[in-house]
Amino acid sequence: xxxxxxxxxxxxxxxxxxxxxxxxxxxxxxxxxxxxxxxxxxxxxxxxxxxxxxxxxxxxxxxxxxxxxxxxxxxxxxxxxxxxxxxxxxxxxxxxxxxxxxxxxxxxxxxxxxxxxxxxxxxxxxxxxxxxxxxxxxxxxxxxxxxxxxxxxxxxxxxxxxxxxxxxxxxxxxxxxxxxxxxxxxxxxxxxxxxxxxxxxxxxxxxxxxxxxxxxxxxxxxxxxxxxxxxxxxxxxxxxxxxxx
Length: 245
Known about the structure:
Oligomer: single chain
CATH topology of the largest domain: Rossmann fold
Structural class: alpha/beta
Number of strands: 11
């Protein structure tokens, strides 16, 4: 029997993912990384890892500040694109976040833009948390930027249509088994119906604290948006957590 591919492997490796999300605010995202660097003030030459780095945009941004950066992602397609940016201070590797990578090596680890919570079982999330922690030196810093459960659920649209050029994406969203599910329906250029899904765990701040305490990490600060304003469980659009090992 063929093993079923996880949703994130098929969807993130698809060209339609980039089409659907082409209108994301990249300037805001870039400013967020700059705000983080100003807040954390990492020493020059710090070793950093961008976990689930995609095509490497933010790893490149970190490396431009003079840090030694490694980007890792499960998608061969994304890492192939990211490798075009490699230099003496920046490398990219295909890596499953659940599997330990370098051990006691990094000063800082980043997990941007809800790139966690993808798995069906909590044991896999805990494996990922332990892997994140294992890669950091003692005293190392982990930044996780996640959706804010209260904010998202209060504003969840069960149905939405999004037009991108010649494509019409019909989106259906629901909460199921404490996961926020988004089903994505459209027809491709050959008029063939397509369906992809996203599934992200609806973790609360308390869930993260428990999980990462088990992995040997302590929550130090929480912010609620990309300008690093205070976190509010209902009103903040993001949940940006800074953990220490």
